[in-house]
Amino acid sequence: MANSANIIKIKRSSTANKPSTLYSGELAYSYGTTPGTNPERLFFGSGDDGNGNATRIDNIGGLYYTRLIDASSAGTLTTNASSIPILSRLVLSMIGRLAT
After folding, report:
1. Pairing verdict, β 56-61 and 41-46
2. What is the dihedral of CA 11, 98, 88, 10, to 10 degrees?
3. In three state form, how does the secondary structure of the chain look?
4. CB-based contacts of 34: which residues, under 8 Å, 6+ apart?
5. Which residues contact 38 (CB under 8 A, 6 or more apart)?
6. How many CA atoms lie within 13 A of 8 on its CB side?
7. Is 62 left (phi over 0), alpha (psi -120 to 50) or beta?
8. Distance between alpha carbon 4 and the CA centroid of its chain, in Å?
9. Can you give the pTM of this predicted structure?
10. In the prediction, which pLDDT does 31 show?
11. What is the pLDDT, as a whole number, of residue 43?
């Protein structure tokens, strides 16, 4: 494997919209911050239509979700910050969506 490098590319957009199409297994990140349908979120193309195209686009994370918790005040409720139980429900909900 001399001079062999793997490059992982993530489709990206400066808009705050969910991508309309992805290939199976492809990642996309929407880093737009203006109000839209899905700002600052990471998406994953799942399923396969037989031609390599994803049949579903799942929202699997992103800066939007990490900002829900103010890490500098873990264990303390602050204005505009979520609590750990709420985030735990969100993560469990996302895991359930990926399993279906």
Report:
1. antiparallel
2. -10
3. CCCCCCCCCCEEECCCCCCCCCECCCEEEECCCCCCCCCCEEEEEECCCCCCECCEEEEEECHHHHCCCCHHHCCCCCCCCCCHHHHHHHHHHHHHHHHC
4. 15, 16
5. 16, 17, 18, 30, 59, 64
6. 4
7. left
8. 29
9. 0.64
10. 86
11. 94
Nearest to 19 by CA among 51, 47, 59, 50: 59
Buried/exposed code over 54-67 (b: 16+ C-beta within 10 A; e: otherwise): beebbbbbbebbee
Cα 72 to its chain centre, rounded Å, is: 22
Residues 28-81: tens digit of each pLDDT = 999 887 766 788 899 999 999 999 999 999 999 888 888 776 555 555 555 555
